[in-house]
């Protein structure tokens, strides 16, 4: 009686590895494109929520906030917004009210904010 060894042959393992490698080459580019797209969607949502908080602050206090920290201190935001593209909270570009470079006469310094991220030549500062 002949004993048959259990296990896979080298050829079977190579075939399975080739199939897995082929599937990974098809899926990987789509995955990274979706990750980038998800960051852009998160950035749009973060900008919308933060801009709404700035507008609510202006409606309540009749002036714009001096900084994003003031929005957190007065509980218009739970925490400083995190830029999803740069994954930092200090990369925001803060814009003063229109017509004033310093924002003092308009009663505040933060009228709008933009992302300071530049990824592969794509600037997010116009969103």
From TrEMBL:
The family database entries (InterPro entries) matched by this protein are listed as: N_methyl_site, Pilin-like
> What SUPFAM superfamilies does its record include?
Pili subunits
PANTHER family found in the cross-reference section:
GENERAL SECRETION PATHWAY PROTEIN G, TYPE IV PILUS NON-CORE MINOR PILIN PILE
What is the recorded name of this protein? Answer: Prepilin-type N-terminal cleavage/methylation domain-containing protein
